[in-house]
Amino acid sequence: MARSLVIVESPAKAKTINKYLGRNFTVKASIGHVMDLPKKTIGIRLPGEEEGNGKKKKSKAKKGSKKGKQKPAGKLIRLDDDKIFEPTLQIIAGKGKIINDLRKAANAADAVYLAGDPDREGEAISAHLAMVLAKPSKYPEQEQSGPRFKKKDAAAEAKEETAKDAPKKEIPATDPKKIFRVTFNEITPKAIRAAFDHPRQVDTDLVDAQQARRVLDRIVGYKVSPLLWNKVRRGLSAGRVQTVAVRLIVEREMEIRAFTPVEYWTIHALLDAGEPPAFEAKLFKHNGEDVEVHTQAEAAAIVAAVEKAQWQVASVAQKEKRRNPPPPFTTSKLQQAAYNRLRYTAKRTMSLAQRLYEGVELGEEGSVALITYMRTDSVHVSSDALAQVRQLIPERFGAAYLPEKPNFYKSKKDAQEAHEAVRPTDAMRAPEDVRKYLDDDVFKLYQLIWQRFVASQMLPAVFDQTTIDISAGDYTFRATGSVMKFEGFLAAYQISAESDDDEPAESDEGRRLPAVREGQTLRMDKIRPDQHFTEPPPRYTEATLVKELEDKGIGRPSTYASIISTIVEREYVTKDQGRFTPTMLGERVSILLVKSFEDIFDVTFTARLEEELDEIEEGKLPWREAVKEFWEKFVVDLDRADDEMLSYKAGIPTGKKCEKCGQGELLERISRHGFFLGCSRYPECDFIQDLSPELPEETGGEPKIEYCDNCGKEMVIKRGRFGVFLACKGYPDCKTTRRLVEGTRVARQPDELLDEKCPDCGEQLVRKHGRYGEFIGCTAYPKCKFIRAKTLGIHCPKCGTGELLERMARKGRRRVFYGCNRYPECDFTTPYRPIAEACPKCGAAFIVEKRSKTGVVRACLKEGCDWEGVAPEEAAPVPVPVEVTRA
Predict the structure, then answer these.
(1) Which residue from 141, 216, 134 is spatially nearest to 179, judged by alpha carbons?
(2) Are 491 and 401 in contact (CB under 8 A)?
(3) Long-range contacts for 96-99 (Cβ within 8 Å, ≥24 apart)?
(4) Helix (H, G, I), strand (E, B), or coil: what is residue 177?
């Protein structure tokens, strides 16, 4: 009896599924897509262009023909043609052997089941597999392999010649009637059995939605990118969604630059009710109305008014507050939480989640899938999973944590309810049970998913919240405190105040207030006015950018990771300590594209296109209609941009006069080294001014001004054949130059000889400054490669044998961190500067110094110790002459 063939995308998924299917099934992998658009041409039939190559047909006049009467060289495709926007799909290079193996297996099988992922991409892969299997194929008996440039010996050449002359066998087409589609949201025996019990045909609506997205992206990429090559420089790219993402980052940066800080003051009073604890109240109202304090003089007047007033409790309000558990993860929420809690990028999160979904080796159990499908925007949970987790909660946390009925959550309106939320396939499989089988990163992500899912089916956390209003003359101060009464879902999933993936913890959480009664007189111990300034909106992190894209309806869960990785790889944005900043290139390109394609790269228009793709998936809108509507707007903008878009190659006028000749106008231009200002009278005037932004020193301050060692003049950054360097302003009279630390604009410090011998070769040691910080090396380099990093003299808290040293991040801007010198054996790191002082609370060997906008504090890193103290240099109070202290 012939076996049935099951085709999946990856070998890992094939291995896991093969466990649950009987001996009557053979599982093979297609290794992703088997068909795609051609690489060198647009591959789409556009109105008025040759079929599939994206080039307009040119009409040539016959020799001797009358002027104006030209015979077209070929047939033009009209807008009403049924083949309009039809993609030209080709088998991907290198997939021939895989496809032939699948064809052979399909012909020998009773039935073929296409088991791609349950989304548009998986449906498209299944449709393409059905296409190639349903066509006959000829192939040689001997298949060539290996790189074509590999040198062949005589025997290999003879074998190749024999293969060329050998008759080709034909693999017959597979009967389409025996090709079926199966989908499942989790790789478990029950889900797979259910899928194979109800096979179906390929969903053409899903395929059309994927095809429409591919066509739209291809049109934008292949039409706008060449425009950027002509106007800016070769190698640039534009994307329908990536350009909008860059636009959001650029607009946020412009908001930050345009932001003007506004001064405001808060006034806090430390009060004593006669029994502990003393508590702090904040100025709340004046004569029953909200009060805002903008200047120090206003703050001083208020302090003077209340310091002699009687402080009396005006009202006491107590209420019970509940915090509801969060729903289980969708793709975007998983990416946000993984970034905020684990600092995983969206790309890394999806890669790890893919491993958990396809299966990991669990000892004797073999390959086991630990989570459901990770590309979803639904919070739906199956009844079986609900029953299982409701059984787990009483066993693990107690019956008091289980609600009477399951918690149900509402997905957003355009979510695919056929999908499920990201959850464990088996809630009974706790993270600690699989810890020994998983890598650290995989384990942490599984733990996060498991905890969130379990917490979603627990009772809310309950807090007792107390609010005390205190009157002081015409002013009212308010104190709030919140104490946990019942832990609820927080027993499984803690919400930390620094995370922005969830509802943040209240600022007054854990603050206890004394028992007071209305009318009670209080003693004011101290009053403190604090100066503040409003802050600009923060730059996007991966988490907040994903949240913004989701909120605005741009892209879909499966696309966020690729959008972010693309704009970083294209150098349109950089990441500095986890936050996105547009590069000068990204900023200039974004401004050009948004100005020339105001409709296409509009946030609302892009979101509407996503809705149309959903309508195509639901069968409500023909895909050609959606593409045609886009094309009609796009082609108008494209023609106009070709004529009107400013060109950095030609130079963009700045309205400034040349500093050197005083006659020409400075033009902003671009070279392979970056943007610069040049004189319009070039080559008569060769004035050039580099516009590349200066990088700050590693301390985070302004770039350090370097001075020439020979003449004392300022050193400036210049570009040469081998990159940027420092040169004296006195050139050509003074020709002093200095190298820069690689990848930075920081001057390389001169080497310093030490009175110490190399332990390896006996030569003298030297202190050097490299790209990643200061180190000690041997003067005999490269013969002797001895290196000793500069340590802080503090033992590593993790391994106990290594010492902490200062390091410099290898990627992005120069960011200092501290780690163990035994890396990679010990991977301890901290972003905070260690100080060789014992913790005054727990006695830990060292403390750390944390720097933020609000100041510098010292803290203990030891788990379970919450000690914090003000750094000595900032221990003095803010110099405000309005502090009053009573005995």
Answers:
(1) 134
(2) yes
(3) 96/139, 96/143, 97/143, 98/30, 98/31, 98/34, 99/34, 99/132, 99/137
(4) helix
Phi/psi for 737 (5° steps) reads -135, 160
The token pair at 623 is: 């895909």
Could you give the angle at which helices 331-342 and 346-358 cross, rounded to 10 degrees?
110
- Which of 522, 428, 414 lies closest to 470, judged by CA? 522
Q: Tokens 């300034």 map to which residue?
A: 533
So what's the pLDDT on residue 144? 37
Query: Which is nearest to 578 in space by CA: 341, 807, 351?
Result: 341
Q: Which helix (H) or strand (E) holds 594?
A: helix 584-596
Tokens (6 digits) for 310? 């009687």
* Residue pair 128/196 in contact by the 8 Å Cβ criterion: no
> Measured on CA atoms in the order 134, 137, 142, 144, is the torsion positive or negative?
negative
Q: 313 pairs with which residues across the strands?
A: 470
Measured CA to CA, the distance from residue 371 to residue 594 in angstroms comes to: 41
DSSP, collapsed to helix, strand or coil, labels residue 214 as helix
Q: Which residues of the chain have pLDDT under 70?
A: 1-2, 48-82, 137-169, 413-418, 496-510, 692-705, 719-724, 740-750, 769-774, 789-790, 808-815, 852-855, 870-887
Res 808: pLDDT: 65
Give CA torsion, residues 425, 428, 432, 438, to 10 deg: -20
What pLDDT, on a 0 to 100 scale, did the predictor assign at position 414?
Answer: 56
Of 886, 854, 873, 884, the residue nearest 300 (C-alpha):
884
Cβ atoms 441, 274 nearer than 8 A: no
Q: Distance of alpha carbon 69 from its chain centroid, rounded?
A: 57
482 contacts: CB under 8 Å, gap ≥ 6? 321, 463, 464, 465, 466, 506, 508, 509, 510, 511
CB of 52 closer than 8 Å to CB of 84: no
**Active site residue: 222, 373, 446, 648, which one?**
373
Contact 459, 488 (CB under 8 A): yes
Contact assessment for residue 658 and residue 706, using Cβ atoms and an 8 Å cutoff: no
Active site residue 572: no
Q: Report whether 452 contacts 372 (CB < 8 A).
A: no
Q: Is the dihedral of CA 673, 675, 677, 681 positive or negative?
A: positive
Q: How far is it, in rounded angstroms, from Cα 601 to Cα 227?
A: 15
What pLDDT is attached to residue 765? 87
- Residue type (1 letter), 272: D
SS (H, E, C) 66-119: CCCCCEECCCCCCCCCCCCCCECCEECCCCHHHHHHHHHHHHHCCCEEECCCCC
